[in-house]
Design goal:
Distance between the termini: 78 Å
Pfam families: SpoIIM
Strand content: under 5%
Order of helices and strands: HHHHHHHHHHH
Keywords: Membrane, Transmembrane, Transmembrane helix
InterPro entries: SpoIIM-like
Protein name: Stage II sporulation protein M
Shape: globular
Helix content: over 70%
Radius of gyration: 26 Å
Number of helices: 11
Length: 241
Amino acid sequence: MDNAKTGETGVDDIPMDGDATNEIVTDTIEVSVFKKENKMVCESGLCKVRAYLSGLVPEITVVVLLFILSGIAGYLYTAFNPASSDVALEGLEELVELIMNMTPLEIMLFIFFNNAIKSLFAFVLGLGFGLIPLLFVLSNGYILGVVTYLESQENGFTYIFLGIMPHGIIELPMILISAAMGVRMGLNVINSMAGRYVDIKGEFRQGISIFFRFIMPMLLLAAGIETFITPVVIGLYTGII
């Protein structure tokens, strides 16, 4: 119906100055760009990753808290009982010696497959009521606490920070997310046994997809940084480079 006949005022009829017109055009362009960028993100599969991780927040929170608490426990227990570190780090020296004899590319692949396999196990073995991923997080947090105490006594906290942060900012979240995914699978099994409907196969397929499409590439990136960038950062800090 014609606005003139109804007496209503349409958008086109509202008088606008040049600034208001430019503002509307700018907002329209920004919305268009946002939709285009969002579409590109979704087409790359990141929308599914984002949605999956959003639903995983409770499990991630539990896992992160356990990791922090076990790290503090490892640090404090070693501080009061230095000899206990021998047990906690048993086998680690042989592993370091093995890595020292590798080429940089071999080191990167070794770190990548070591983290990827352990993370995959933490997820898959979560089907056993979520116990394995919880133990995985507790043991890794404890060992990190032990290493942090020993290195802090010898080289200081700045050295530890620079030795972990470049790759750890990617590696640690990926490992903890894998453990959180395993905890969720364990909770799904428990809920299923309690008679509640849970699509365990669907959850498992979704978790596997997230692991191979998101977590593994990020672990490879972290392994590359740990092999080629972290040593340079440490070298610059210690004056070797």
